[in-house]
Design goal:
By secondary structure, the protein is mostly helical. The protein is 68% helix and 0% strand.
């Protein structure tokens, strides 16, 4: 293997702080670039673990909800401005509305992400398959469980919306993989 020092002039050399130690340091730090697995079955699976899934969906849900809620709070705060308000009072009103609405939306979507990740991981474990049906059933269950306190009719409608949303998201992901060059 060619080292960078081989390509330099005869009169120059790269500084090597370990040259006098007589230790093969260049072999010490050659780490593998691919993930290491204990068993071959783990290497064959191309998905996140249930804990990574839980963290990913919860975090994305919270961040997305907080950003959307902050934007809605910004417009609500601007709309609630009254004549005669000072600039300091208007800024305070906008910041309070953005923070309150962002926190509320973030918490709600974070819970939806948590429920979805848990149900999808449970479906994968129960069916021992990782396919589109797991996501659709997880969306159905998430919507139904999220609105269960509002009554059976609201839970059924929310479950249908959750299943459709999960199915649409999976279909969009598959289409993006197929038609979008990355």
């Amino acid at each position: 293997m060619e080292r960078p020092s081989d390509r330099l002039d005869e009169n120059t050399r790269l500084y090597n702080p370990y040259q006098d130690l007589q230790i093969p340091v260049h072999n010490l730090y050659r780490l593998p670039t691919s993930p290491e697995f204990l068993f071959q079955e783990e290497a064959a699976a191309q998905r996140r673990s249930w804990g990574e899934n839980l963290q990913y969906y919860t975090g994305c849900g919270y961040l997305g909800g907080a950003a959307g809620g902050a934007a809605k709070g910004l417009f609500d705060g601007l709309r609630a401005a009254e004549e005669g308000d000072t600039l300091k009072l208007r800024v305070n009103r906008v910041l309070n509305a953005s923070g309150q609405t962002g926190r509320k939306f973030g918490n709600r979507l974070g819970i939806v992400g948590l429920l979805f990740a848990g149900m999808e991981s449970a479906m994968i474990a129960a069916r021992d398959k990782d396919d589109i049906l797991n996501s659709i059933f997880a969306g159905l269950g998430t919507g139904a469980l999220f609105k269960a306190a509002s009554g059976p009719r609201s839970a059924a409608v929310a479950g249908a919306i959750g299943g459709l949303a999960a199915g649409a998201a999976v279909a969009a992901k598959q289409a993006a993989k197929r038609y979008v060059p990355i």
